[in-house]
Amino acid sequence: MARQEKKYKRLTKLQYMFKGHPKGLIAAALANMGERFGFYTMMAILTLFIQAKFGMDGTNAGLIYSTFYASIYILALVGGIIADRTRNFKGTIMVGIIVMALGYVLLSFPTETPAPEGKRMVYLIMTLFGLFVIAFGNGLFKGNLQALVGQMYDNPQYSSRRDSGFSLFYMFINVGAIFAPMAAIGVRNWWLGTQGFQYNASLPALAHAHLRGTINEDNLATLQTMANEASGTQVADITAFSNQYLNAFTTGFHYAFAVAVIAMAISLVIYLINKKTFPDPKTKVAPGSPMSAGEVQMAAAEVKQRLYALFAVYGVVIFFWFSFHQNGLTLTYFARDYTLLQLGDMKISAEIFQSMNPFFVVFLTPVVIWLFGYLRERGKEPSTPRKIAIGMAIAASAYVVMALGSMALPLFSAINPEIGGTPLVDSQKVTPYLLLLTYFILTVAELFISPLGISFVSKVAPPQYQGIMQGGWLGATAVGNQLLFIGAIFYESMPLSVTWSLFVVVSLLSMATMLFMIKWLERVAR
Questions:
Q1: Among 50, 311, 392, 415, which is most exposed with the fewest C-beta within 10 angstroms?
Q2: What number of other Cβ atoms are within 10 A of residue 56's Cβ?
Q3: Cα–Cα distance, 154 to 160 (Å, whole number)
Q4: CA-based diameter of the chain, in Å?
């Protein structure tokens, strides 16, 4: 009886959370969970996979990472144009899910590691092609699904809840993202176990240095010790071990991509079942309806002002994504190189920190929605542009924490075994709570910017440009992502505190720019 009462309370809370929102909202979020699962699989392991697979340095792996993430979002412009021209948002979204799944299939096939000299470039091209297919499918899918959610709130019945609706959408799609890094780690470690090995984040770099003949005597001794621990026995042939460990390590990552295929299949099923609950822009609206009236009455001058306002916001958020998406690049490098991978008595992997952001999204979103609702009831809720400016200030504070926590740490060149450096021992590394706190603060910033920015675009974009303007938001994200490799360059060549200070500066400059435009943006958004 008590269990039934608890279940009823949970249901009523969930129902209350979605009260006043359109029926298709939760279905759209659930359909998007597969995309988030794949996205966070890539976020967690892509740079580590590329470095282990091809022996690349952090800068070149970062360039591939930043180009891939830029492609994901810039191709959303292409997807938006296709959907706007055809007015077939639902069909474009469905094709996007299928294409993304095919990309993950391509990455899931193992190839030998280290690659023989004659095949290395072939394997790299295969990997890059798989990444392009994923990016193209995502471009067809992501912005157009967001546009469909925005169209749900064009109905005056729901329009006042647009910001909270996008926050709920953002929260639920991140449920899949929580489990993606865990699944990737689990599959990778399971495969290592089947080959008789244990996980060690430092081993791939040491193994590559040994196979290239660039390892020094101290690091060779470290490699021998780690090899013995990873094998559970005394390793007699360190060259054979290096080859076997690298092959097992990367094959486990290949199989992790296969899990994303399963997630995409589940998303496709959910989407097809709920397809009828989504608005259909292909359907001609009756004369005098809110949509048709809006299209007729919107003068060319107003359309121009709205587009200018959107482009201005796009320019600001470029620098948020440049800072925020370091979570899959320099912050992941920091987790591997400088962070004690242990919480209490529990050993953890560098990739596990990528679960923290979606975890915090899911559990902080209700708090943020409550806060904005509380302020709205009292007439004190900040406008969406003002919320974005606040979010930029919060993002800056996250990197202040990282800069302060990294001040005593050595340059990366001093710990990089591939150029003669000596990796840090556990006693020299920083507590994992530094990264946990950083991810917590960055997530709060994200909740002030990303779902509310999407909401702002859906509200301000002229009706005939809904798809392409959502693509424009993602295009701005693409530009920020393309700049990510700058963080990798700083990480490998500058003191860590300088690297993190770069993101403090760009976040504060973006906040100041947003505040300078605030009255104009608020006027346009009315």
A1: 311
A2: 17
A3: 10
A4: 82
Q: Which residue has the tokens 């920091």?
A: 334
**Dist. CA 357–CA 178, nearest whole Å:** 8
For residue 387, what are the contacts with CB-CB under 8 A and spacing of at least 6? 372, 448, 449, 452
Cβ atoms of 87 and 282 closer than 8 Å: yes
Q: Which two structure tokens, joined as six digits, stand for 201?
A: 């984040």
Identify which has the larger pLDDT, 279 or 496.
Answer: 496
Peptide bond into 114 cis (omega under 30): yes
Q: Which residues share a beta bridge with 154?
A: none
pLDDT at residue 288, as a whole number: 42
**What would the pLDDT profile of 320-329 be if each residue is shown by its tens digit?**
889 988 988 9
Measured N-to-C along each axis, helices 238-274 and 203-212 cross at an angle, to the nearest 10 degrees, of 130
Sign of CA dihedral 225, 229, 231, 232: positive
3-state secondary structure of 343: strand
Average pLDDT on 472-480 reads 82
In this structure, the strands spanning 342-343 and 346-347 are antiparallel
CA-to-CA distance for 400 and 391, rounded, in angstroms? 14
User: Where does residue 20 fall: left (phi above 0), alpha (psi -120 to 50 degrees), or beta otherwise?
Assistant: left
CA distances from 314 to 76, 310, 334, 508 (A): 14, 6, 29, 16
% of the chain surpassing 70 pLDDT: 92
| Alpha-helical runs (H) found in 282-430 | 290-297, 300-324, 330-338, 356-377, 384-405
Element (H, E) at 66: helix 58-86
In this predicted model, what pLDDT tens digit does every residue of 448-471 receive, in sequence order? 888 778 778 877 888 777 767 877
Residues in the chain: 526
200 DSSP 8-state letter: -
CA 352, 358, 362, 365 torsion: positive or negative? positive
Stretch 471-489: mean pLDDT: 86
Q: What is the pLDDT of residue 467?
A: 66
Mean pLDDT taken over the chain = 84
Residue 404, pLDDT > 80, answer yes
Please check whether residue 175 is in contact with residue 33, taking contact to mean a CB–CB distance below 8 angstroms: yes
Higher pLDDT, 524 or 228: 228
Handedness of CA 330, 336, 341, 347 (dihedral sign): positive
